[in-house]
Amino acid sequence: MRKSVFVVFIIALTSAAFAQQPPQQQPEFVKHAQDLVRSGKIEEALAVYQAELKTSPDSVAANNGAGVVLDLLGRTKEAKVHFDRAIEHADTPAAKANAQRALAMSFAFDNDCANAAKYDELAADYYASVPDWFRAGEIYNEAARVCIETGSLDTAEKLYRRGEEAGLKEPNISPARVALWKFRMEHALARIAARRGQPEVAKQHVAAARALLDSNPEMAKDQEIFYPYLTGYVALYSGDPKTALADLQKARQEDPFIQLLMAEAYEKLGETAKAKELYAKAATTTAHNPVGAYVRPRAMKKIER
Protein backbone atom coordinates (compact mmCIF):
# COMPACT_ATOMS: atom_id res chain seq x y z
CA MET A 1 0.00 0.00 0.00
CA ARG A 2 1.28 3.47 -0.81
CA LYS A 3 2.53 5.42 2.19
CA SER A 4 0.46 8.60 2.73
CA VAL A 5 1.36 10.45 5.75
CA PHE A 6 1.07 15.52 -1.49
CA VAL A 7 -0.59 27.72 -10.80
CA VAL A 8 -2.26 27.97 -12.39
CA PHE A 9 0.12 28.60 -15.12
CA ILE A 10 3.28 27.71 -13.33
CA ILE A 11 6.28 26.95 -15.50
CA ALA A 12 9.15 25.53 -13.45
CA LEU A 13 12.36 23.68 -14.25
CA THR A 14 12.37 21.75 -11.00
CA SER A 15 9.98 19.94 -8.74
CA ALA A 16 7.32 21.77 -6.80
CA ALA A 17 8.97 20.11 -3.83
CA PHE A 18 11.71 22.74 -4.02
CA ALA A 19 9.41 25.69 -4.66
CA GLN A 20 9.32 26.83 -1.06
CA GLN A 21 13.07 26.53 -0.51
CA PRO A 22 15.11 29.70 -1.16
CA PRO A 23 17.94 29.01 -3.60
CA GLN A 24 20.61 29.78 -0.98
CA GLN A 25 19.29 26.95 1.19
CA GLN A 26 19.56 24.32 -1.52
CA PRO A 27 22.39 21.82 -1.15
CA GLU A 28 25.13 22.18 -3.75
CA PHE A 29 24.27 18.82 -5.32
CA VAL A 30 20.71 20.03 -5.93
CA LYS A 31 21.88 23.22 -7.61
CA HIS A 32 24.31 21.24 -9.76
CA ALA A 33 21.64 18.74 -10.76
CA GLN A 34 19.16 21.48 -11.57
CA ASP A 35 21.72 23.16 -13.82
CA LEU A 36 22.15 19.87 -15.64
CA VAL A 37 18.38 19.54 -16.08
CA ARG A 38 18.18 23.05 -17.50
CA SER A 39 20.87 22.06 -19.98
CA GLY A 40 18.89 18.99 -20.99
CA LYS A 41 21.40 16.62 -19.36
CA ILE A 42 18.78 14.67 -17.45
CA GLU A 43 20.65 11.38 -17.19
CA GLU A 44 23.63 13.24 -15.73
CA ALA A 45 21.34 14.96 -13.23
CA LEU A 46 20.00 11.57 -12.17
CA ALA A 47 23.56 10.38 -11.59
CA VAL A 48 24.14 13.33 -9.25
CA TYR A 49 21.09 12.45 -7.16
CA GLN A 50 21.95 8.76 -7.16
CA ALA A 51 25.45 9.51 -5.89
CA GLU A 52 24.00 11.51 -3.01
CA LEU A 53 21.52 8.75 -2.21
CA LYS A 54 24.31 6.19 -1.83
CA THR A 55 25.53 8.03 1.27
CA SER A 56 22.23 9.65 2.33
CA PRO A 57 19.42 7.31 1.25
CA ASP A 58 16.82 9.19 3.30
CA SER A 59 17.69 12.65 1.96
CA VAL A 60 14.43 14.41 1.12
CA ALA A 61 16.11 16.72 -1.39
CA ALA A 62 17.89 13.86 -3.17
CA ASN A 63 14.78 11.67 -3.28
CA ASN A 64 12.63 14.50 -4.59
CA GLY A 65 15.24 15.39 -7.18
CA ALA A 66 15.65 11.79 -8.30
CA GLY A 67 11.88 11.48 -8.58
CA VAL A 68 11.66 14.56 -10.77
CA VAL A 69 14.30 13.46 -13.26
CA LEU A 70 12.96 9.92 -13.39
CA ASP A 71 9.54 11.31 -14.32
CA LEU A 72 11.18 13.39 -17.05
CA LEU A 73 12.84 10.22 -18.33
CA GLY A 74 9.50 8.40 -18.37
CA ARG A 75 10.49 6.09 -15.50
CA THR A 76 7.53 7.08 -13.39
CA LYS A 77 7.24 3.86 -11.37
CA GLU A 78 10.78 4.34 -10.09
CA ALA A 79 10.08 8.02 -9.45
CA LYS A 80 7.27 7.22 -7.06
CA VAL A 81 9.54 5.11 -4.87
CA HIS A 82 11.67 8.20 -4.29
CA PHE A 83 8.72 10.50 -3.68
CA ASP A 84 7.30 8.03 -1.15
CA ARG A 85 10.65 8.04 0.63
CA ALA A 86 10.73 11.84 0.62
CA ILE A 87 7.26 11.94 2.16
CA GLU A 88 8.25 9.40 4.80
CA HIS A 89 11.40 11.26 5.85
CA ALA A 90 10.19 14.86 5.53
CA ASP A 91 10.96 16.62 8.82
CA THR A 92 8.26 19.32 8.70
CA PRO A 93 4.61 19.38 7.63
CA ALA A 94 5.49 21.83 4.86
CA ALA A 95 8.24 19.56 3.51
CA LYS A 96 5.85 16.62 3.59
CA ALA A 97 3.17 18.59 1.75
CA ASN A 98 5.62 19.67 -0.92
CA ALA A 99 6.81 16.09 -1.42
CA GLN A 100 3.22 14.92 -1.70
CA ARG A 101 2.62 17.64 -4.26
CA ALA A 102 5.60 16.38 -6.26
CA LEU A 103 4.13 12.86 -6.07
CA ALA A 104 0.88 14.26 -7.43
CA MET A 105 2.78 15.50 -10.47
CA SER A 106 4.36 12.08 -10.91
CA PHE A 107 0.84 10.68 -11.27
CA ALA A 108 0.13 13.48 -13.73
CA PHE A 109 2.95 12.10 -15.90
CA ASP A 110 0.98 8.83 -15.85
CA ASN A 111 -2.15 10.66 -17.01
CA ASP A 112 -3.73 9.63 -13.70
CA CYS A 113 -6.20 12.31 -12.59
CA ALA A 114 -7.50 10.47 -9.53
CA ASN A 115 -4.16 9.97 -7.82
CA ALA A 116 -2.80 13.36 -8.84
CA ALA A 117 -5.87 14.94 -7.26
CA LYS A 118 -5.53 12.77 -4.16
CA TYR A 119 -2.02 13.96 -3.33
CA ASP A 120 -2.56 17.55 -4.43
CA GLU A 121 -5.59 17.67 -2.12
CA LEU A 122 -3.40 16.56 0.77
CA ALA A 123 -1.03 19.42 0.04
CA ALA A 124 -3.92 21.87 -0.30
CA ASP A 125 -5.30 20.70 3.04
CA TYR A 126 -1.96 21.48 4.68
CA TYR A 127 -1.85 25.02 3.26
CA ALA A 128 -5.47 25.59 4.26
CA SER A 129 -4.52 24.62 7.82
CA VAL A 130 -1.68 27.15 8.03
CA PRO A 131 -3.71 28.99 6.67
CA ASP A 132 -2.41 30.06 3.27
CA TRP A 133 -5.62 30.17 1.30
CA PHE A 134 -4.06 31.54 -1.88
CA ARG A 135 -1.60 28.67 -2.15
CA ALA A 136 -4.28 26.14 -1.23
CA GLY A 137 -6.43 27.47 -4.05
CA GLU A 138 -3.56 27.30 -6.51
CA ILE A 139 -2.88 23.67 -5.64
CA TYR A 140 -6.52 22.74 -6.21
CA ASN A 141 -6.22 24.48 -9.58
CA GLU A 142 -3.02 22.56 -10.25
CA ALA A 143 -4.86 19.27 -9.75
CA ALA A 144 -7.74 20.52 -11.84
CA ARG A 145 -5.44 21.32 -14.72
CA VAL A 146 -4.09 17.79 -14.63
CA CYS A 147 -7.61 16.41 -14.71
CA ILE A 148 -8.92 18.58 -17.52
CA GLU A 149 -6.17 17.37 -19.84
CA THR A 150 -6.82 13.73 -18.93
CA GLY A 151 -10.44 14.24 -19.95
CA SER A 152 -11.75 13.91 -16.38
CA LEU A 153 -13.88 16.97 -16.85
CA ASP A 154 -16.31 16.62 -13.94
CA THR A 155 -13.43 16.17 -11.52
CA ALA A 156 -11.60 19.10 -13.07
CA GLU A 157 -14.61 21.36 -12.62
CA LYS A 158 -15.03 20.28 -9.01
CA LEU A 159 -11.38 21.01 -8.25
CA TYR A 160 -11.43 24.38 -9.98
CA ARG A 161 -14.45 25.36 -7.90
CA ARG A 162 -12.70 24.24 -4.73
CA GLY A 163 -9.71 26.31 -5.76
CA GLU A 164 -11.80 29.42 -6.21
CA GLU A 165 -13.59 28.81 -2.91
CA ALA A 166 -10.28 28.43 -1.05
CA GLY A 167 -8.66 31.41 -2.72
CA LEU A 168 -11.54 33.72 -1.87
CA LYS A 169 -11.11 32.91 1.84
CA GLU A 170 -7.91 34.96 1.93
CA PRO A 171 -8.25 37.55 4.72
CA ASN A 172 -8.51 41.16 3.55
CA ILE A 173 -8.45 39.98 -0.04
CA SER A 174 -7.97 42.77 -2.58
CA PRO A 175 -10.45 43.47 -5.38
CA ALA A 176 -7.78 42.48 -7.93
CA ARG A 177 -7.28 39.14 -6.20
CA VAL A 178 -11.04 38.51 -6.17
CA ALA A 179 -11.14 39.31 -9.88
CA LEU A 180 -8.22 36.95 -10.46
CA TRP A 181 -10.06 33.98 -8.95
CA LYS A 182 -13.20 34.80 -10.91
CA PHE A 183 -11.19 35.12 -14.13
CA ARG A 184 -9.50 31.79 -13.51
CA MET A 185 -12.88 30.17 -12.94
CA GLU A 186 -14.37 31.52 -16.16
CA HIS A 187 -11.21 30.55 -18.03
CA ALA A 188 -11.50 27.00 -16.70
CA LEU A 189 -15.23 26.68 -17.36
CA ALA A 190 -14.76 27.82 -20.95
CA ARG A 191 -12.09 25.17 -21.57
CA ILE A 192 -14.17 22.49 -19.89
CA ALA A 193 -17.22 23.39 -21.98
CA ALA A 194 -15.15 23.23 -25.15
CA ARG A 195 -13.89 19.79 -24.15
CA ARG A 196 -17.48 18.70 -23.48
CA GLY A 197 -18.47 19.69 -26.99
CA GLN A 198 -20.47 22.72 -25.82
CA PRO A 199 -19.09 25.58 -27.96
CA GLU A 200 -21.91 28.01 -27.16
CA VAL A 201 -21.45 27.52 -23.42
CA ALA A 202 -17.71 27.94 -23.89
CA LYS A 203 -18.28 31.25 -25.70
CA GLN A 204 -20.38 32.52 -22.80
CA HIS A 205 -17.55 31.82 -20.36
CA VAL A 206 -15.02 33.38 -22.74
CA ALA A 207 -17.16 36.52 -22.80
CA ALA A 208 -17.33 36.53 -19.00
CA ALA A 209 -13.53 36.19 -18.80
CA ARG A 210 -13.14 39.09 -21.26
CA ALA A 211 -15.48 41.26 -19.18
CA LEU A 212 -13.46 40.56 -16.02
CA LEU A 213 -10.24 41.60 -17.75
CA ASP A 214 -11.84 44.77 -19.09
CA SER A 215 -13.28 45.77 -15.72
CA ASN A 216 -10.18 45.03 -13.66
CA PRO A 217 -7.07 46.62 -15.21
CA GLU A 218 -4.88 45.79 -12.22
CA MET A 219 -5.67 42.10 -12.53
CA ALA A 220 -5.48 42.27 -16.32
CA LYS A 221 -1.87 43.50 -16.28
CA ASP A 222 -0.64 39.99 -15.59
CA GLN A 223 -3.57 37.96 -16.91
CA GLU A 224 -4.26 39.48 -20.34
CA ILE A 225 -1.66 37.19 -21.91
CA PHE A 226 -3.79 34.18 -20.94
CA TYR A 227 -6.79 35.38 -22.95
CA PRO A 228 -5.49 34.34 -26.43
CA TYR A 229 -4.52 31.01 -24.88
CA LEU A 230 -8.15 30.67 -23.79
CA THR A 231 -9.69 31.64 -27.12
CA GLY A 232 -7.20 29.49 -29.00
CA TYR A 233 -7.88 26.49 -26.77
CA VAL A 234 -11.64 26.87 -27.17
CA ALA A 235 -11.34 27.24 -30.94
CA LEU A 236 -9.10 24.17 -31.22
CA TYR A 237 -11.48 21.96 -29.25
CA SER A 238 -14.46 23.43 -31.10
CA GLY A 239 -13.08 22.22 -34.42
CA ASP A 240 -11.63 25.50 -35.75
CA PRO A 241 -7.84 25.00 -35.95
CA LYS A 242 -7.33 28.05 -38.19
CA THR A 243 -8.78 30.44 -35.61
CA ALA A 244 -7.04 28.51 -32.86
CA LEU A 245 -3.67 29.01 -34.49
CA ALA A 246 -4.24 32.73 -35.08
CA ASP A 247 -5.15 33.23 -31.42
CA LEU A 248 -2.43 31.00 -30.00
CA GLN A 249 0.19 32.95 -31.94
CA LYS A 250 -0.69 35.89 -29.67
CA ALA A 251 -0.07 33.86 -26.51
CA ARG A 252 3.28 33.17 -24.84
CA GLN A 253 5.34 31.49 -27.51
CA GLU A 254 7.89 30.17 -25.00
CA ASP A 255 5.17 28.25 -23.14
CA PRO A 256 5.47 24.55 -24.06
CA PHE A 257 1.72 24.07 -23.63
CA ILE A 258 1.07 26.78 -26.22
CA GLN A 259 3.67 25.18 -28.49
CA LEU A 260 1.85 21.85 -28.20
CA LEU A 261 -1.55 23.37 -28.95
CA MET A 262 -0.12 25.21 -31.96
CA ALA A 263 1.48 21.99 -33.19
CA GLU A 264 -1.88 20.25 -32.94
CA ALA A 265 -3.52 23.09 -34.87
CA TYR A 266 -0.88 22.91 -37.61
CA GLU A 267 -1.32 19.14 -37.76
CA LYS A 268 -5.08 19.51 -38.21
CA LEU A 269 -4.42 22.03 -40.98
CA GLY A 270 -2.14 19.57 -42.76
CA GLU A 271 1.05 21.59 -42.15
CA THR A 272 3.07 18.68 -40.82
CA ALA A 273 6.53 20.28 -41.04
CA LYS A 274 5.51 23.19 -38.83
CA ALA A 275 3.73 20.81 -36.47
CA LYS A 276 6.84 18.65 -36.07
CA GLU A 277 9.00 21.71 -35.39
CA LEU A 278 6.74 22.80 -32.56
CA TYR A 279 6.38 19.30 -31.15
CA ALA A 280 10.18 19.15 -30.99
CA LYS A 281 10.31 22.44 -29.08
CA ALA A 282 7.59 21.39 -26.68
CA ALA A 283 9.31 18.06 -26.00
CA THR A 284 12.31 19.83 -24.46
CA THR A 285 10.33 21.07 -21.47
CA THR A 286 11.72 19.95 -18.13
CA ALA A 287 8.84 21.29 -16.06
CA HIS A 288 7.60 19.02 -13.28
CA ASN A 289 4.11 20.49 -13.17
CA PRO A 290 0.81 20.01 -15.04
CA VAL A 291 2.25 21.54 -18.21
CA GLY A 292 5.35 19.36 -18.26
CA ALA A 293 3.40 16.25 -17.30
CA TYR A 294 0.96 16.75 -20.17
CA VAL A 295 3.25 18.18 -22.83
CA ARG A 296 6.51 16.25 -22.57
CA PRO A 297 5.17 12.69 -23.04
CA ARG A 298 2.80 13.67 -25.84
CA ALA A 299 5.29 15.77 -27.74
CA MET A 300 7.97 13.10 -27.47
CA LYS A 301 5.62 10.48 -28.91
CA LYS A 302 4.93 12.77 -31.84
CA ILE A 303 8.58 13.34 -32.70
CA GLU A 304 9.44 9.65 -32.26
CA ARG A 305 7.02 8.59 -34.98
Word description of this protein:
- By secondary structure, the protein is mainly alpha-helical.
- Helices cover 73% and strands 0% of the residues.
- The chain has helices at 28-38, 42-55, 60-72, 76-89, 93-109, 113-129, 133-150, 153-167, 175-195, 199-215, 217-223, 226-237, 241-248, 256-268, 272-282, 290-304.
- The protein is globular and about 60 Å long.
- The model is unreliable at 1-24 (pLDDT under 50).
Task: Furnish the topology, listing elements before pairings.
Layout: H1 28-38, H2 42-55, H3 60-72, H4 76-89, H5 93-109, H6 113-129, H7 133-150, H8 153-167, H9 175-195, H10 199-215, H11 217-223, H12 226-237, H13 241-248, H14 256-268, H15 272-282, H16 290-304
What's this entry about, in short?
The protein is an all-alpha fold and 305 residues long. It has 16 helices and no strands.
What value does the Rg take, in angstroms? 19 Å
Low-confidence blocks of residues: 1-24
Main β-sheet: number of strands, strand sense, barrel status?
none
* Relative strand content: under 5%
Q: What is the average per-residue confidence, as pLDDT, rounded to a whole number?
A: 92
Shape: globular
Distance between the termini: 37 Å
Number of helices: 16
What pattern of helices and strands is seen along the backbone? HHHHHHHHHHHHHHHH
Level of helix content?
A: over 70%
Class per helix and strand makeup = mainly alpha
